[in-house]
Amino acid sequence: MSQAKPQLKHFPEHIDLEPVMHVEGSVRLPGSKSISNRTLLLAALSEGTTTIHDLLASDDTLVMLGALQKLGIRWEQLDERTHVVHGAGGALPIHEADLFMGNAGTAIRPLTAALAVIGGDYTLHGVQRMHERPIGDLVDALNAVGAQIDYTGTPGYPPLRIRRGHIVASRMSVRGNVSSQFLTALLMAAPLMAKDHPVTIEVEGELISKPYIEITLNLMRRFGVTVEQDGWSAFTVQPGQRYRTPGSIHVEGDASSASYFLAAGAIAGGPVRVEGVGRDSIQGDVRFADALEQMGVTITRGDTWIEARSNGVLKAIDADFNHIPDAAMTIAVAALYADGTSTLRNIASWRVKETDRLAAMATELRKVGATVEEGADYLRVTPPAELQPATIDTYDDHRMAMCFSLASLDGKARRGNAMRINDPKCVAKTFPDYFETFAGIAKTDLF
Ligand SMILES: O=C(O)C1=C[C@@H](OP(=O)(O)O)[C@@H](O)[C@H](O)C1
Ligand SMILES: C=C(OP(=O)(O)O)C(=O)O
User: Fold this and answer.
1) Residue 408 belongs to a domain with what CATH number?
2) Ligand 1: which residue has its CA nearest to atom 3?
3) With CB atoms 3.0 to 4.6 Å apart as the test, which of 146, 157, 165, 417 could cross-link to 389 if both were Cys?
4) DSSP string, 236-251
5) Is the pLDDT of residue 364 over 70?
6) Does the structure's ipTM exceed the value 0.90?
């Protein structure tokens, strides 16, 4: 057995992953994207200075840091693991800015709401795919209470032009079935609107991705604002609450990023331990480990770590994955190693993320030999007897690249052929060192 070598130093057009016979080891996770970007914005809106430990360093957090800087928020990086943000107490020093949001939903959606409420003259735009990701429900909710947000391209999508409106909001309403990030954005901006009267945000119809709202409420609480919750249908912020710095805050490891390593341990031996998330996590994606347990994997949990160990062939799964849409992609690829057909249900939101993930996942799983049924909101995966080596397209979607590294795990006797992953650098959205970290747990044996 030999250790696979880190291979991604110069961002090649593709990476060839040799068949991996066994995985084992421990991985220190990068910071949670969802917590990092919320924390940055809340720290900027707070009174006082916030020291942030273990912020994620990736494309998505860079665009948030860049935007805050352009808005006149001062921040410094003290060392590799420590940032300091000087809050401006709900104001923004700079009232005109052109902001590049990349493809970061956790940046553009909350910033749109905050900027519309604070007021100024701002444009927000991103990469081409960002201009195809919906934002109309959020814009409608804000404009209905007096915000002035216009589309400069296709109605319903970024780019946006935000001008100073006159917001009078005591009741707002937002649809919850396209992205929970719209509700998150309104919740985070609500204390800025609730100066002398309560603000209630009602959710129209079904709310998807609910655990992400729990992350939002948890972090708002840490920054001094409590939200009254009427189930999942209404949220009220009482007046007079202002964001106040908690002093310092630690960003947990990313639970979605954990899914690849836990799945690797589940498929190819293990144990693999992820460090940085565990029983204490506020991220819904830790429930990925529950899905692995249903698939017959042995999971052990500590307060700040989770470990997965394989028990032979995975059991096929049929489940609703609405609560963990990101980590569910990892289940779709793990399903290649199951003893029958797996069905992932209630995942329509996949279609409006970094790519149309239902279509992309179906196409690429077929390349390795799976039989796949792609529904409007579900995916059914029947594994092949033996995985075919393939060239995997990643659609500028970090999760496609990370998920398909798992297809190099040679649980199915395919020998000597590499799995090629095109455009591996797309992992930089949330996990720039992903392939090096994966290589650290992979043991290859070609003979
Ligand atoms: O609020 C968040 O941090 C996120 C919410 C989810 O999006 P949707 O609510 O659009 O499903 C998730 O897919 C995304 O990666 C992060
Ligand atoms: C959907 C994702 O990102 P975003 O925060 O841009 O929505 C994701 O990371 O899988």
Assistant:
1) 3.65.10.10
2) 34
3) 417
4) EE-TT---B--SEEEP
5) yes
6) yes
